[in-house]
Amino acid sequence: MHLLPPFGDLALEDISTEAVEQWRRGLRVSPRTKNKLLRVLNGVFRRARRAFGCRHNPVADVDRLREPRRIDLDVFSPEEVLALVRAATSQQTPRSS
Fold first, then answer.
1. For residues 15 and 58, is the Cβ–Cβ distance under 8 A?
2. In which element (H, E) is residue 7 found?
3. Among residues 13, 12, 17, which one has the least CA distance to residue 44?
4. What is the per-residue pLDDT for 89?
5. Residue 57: left (phi > 0), alpha (psi -120 to 50), or beta?
């Protein structure tokens, strides 16, 4: 889906590093997904080297993008927050004077 439209009609030897970088710039996906797609394309060229003797790998010269650190947050829903507020209010003991 991402690789065939820009590269499907080209011979591997005709794909340049600049073409790979231009393709990546045009992708409308996250940096993480761009890096994943770059790894897939790199795998294609590595396989072509082993299977067919292709010596050209334009992906090897493309720098990977920095990926923002992923933080998994477990947040309460509005209903859960309200339930906590109700529970806290009902469990408070009156202050002694």
1. yes
2. helix 4-7
3. 12
4. 80
5. beta
Q: Would you list the DSSP string of 50-66? A: HHH-----GGGGSPPPP
Phi, psi of 15 (to 5 degrees): -90, 120
Q: How far is CA 26 from the centre of its chain?
A: 15
- Nearest Cα to 44, choosing from 87, 2, 74, 80? 2
Gyration radius of the chain over CA positions: 26
Say which residues have a Cβ less than 8 Å from residue 57's Cβ, sequence separation at least 6. Answer: 42, 45, 46, 49
* Residue-wise pLDDT tens digits, 8-29: 899 999 999 999 999 999 999 9
pLDDT digits (tens, 9 = 90+) for 31-64: 999 999 999 999 999 999 999 999 999 999 999 9
CA gap 46, 4 in Å, rounded: 17
CB 35 within 8 A of CB 65: yes
